[in-house]
């Protein structure tokens, strides 16, 4: 991180490295469920540089901050912008929310893995859905896979565990799998324009 910062500063750039919350071990680190290090410097920067593999983390930063993110993959030596992919993902999420609006029975999945077991969040979502006339039940799973949900009698699922399950594995599920943030949108408690990836605090 220090070496990258030095290179950019020698090119005349003002560089800021964010400090995250309690789940973040290193300055500037971004997790799939925690973008706090990026959010901590949001008011100071025009653009983010993400160094790592994959698209989920930089996409999360882009959507959370509404700012440009350049993704640099040190293994493939490729640099990419994310605007096209970002729009594609947002269209997919909008479609999933709209489809779920037709559902009556919601299965709220509580993960069993350490750091992902958000029973309190699941109970709040259940209460919210029931207040809006939906049937909602809690489901506990250590592993969340399409085949585990396939034969359960629900119109839609809400994943309170790893946020990547609903986003990255979108096409693997026959029924909509939403995040807690997306349930807020479905129920009219948040505008789609204020969409962000779910974060685990």
Structure, explained:
By secondary structure, this protein is α/β, with parallel strands linked by helices. The protein folds into 2 domains: 79 residues, Rossmann fold (3-Layer(aba) Sandwich); 98 residues, Rossmann fold. Helices cover 35% and strands 17% of the residues. The chain is built from 8 helices and 7 strands; from the N terminus they run H-H-E-H-E-E-H-E-H-E-H-E-H-E-H. A 4-stranded parallel sheet has the order 5-4-6-7. Helix 4 crosses helix 8. The protein is elongated, with a radius of gyration of 18 Å. 30% of the residues are buried. The mean pLDDT is 92.
Summarize the structure.
The protein is an alpha/beta fold and 201 residues long.
Itemize the secondary structure elements and their pairings.
Blueprint: H1 2-10, H2 36-39, E1 47-51, H3 56-65, E2 68-73, E3 78-80, H4 83-100, E4 105-111, H5 119-131, E5 135-141, H6 146-149, E6 156-159, H7 164-168, E7 177-178, H8 180-186
Parallel strand pairs: 1-2, 4-5, 4-6, 6-7
Antiparallel strand pairs: 2-3
Helix pairs in contact: 4-8
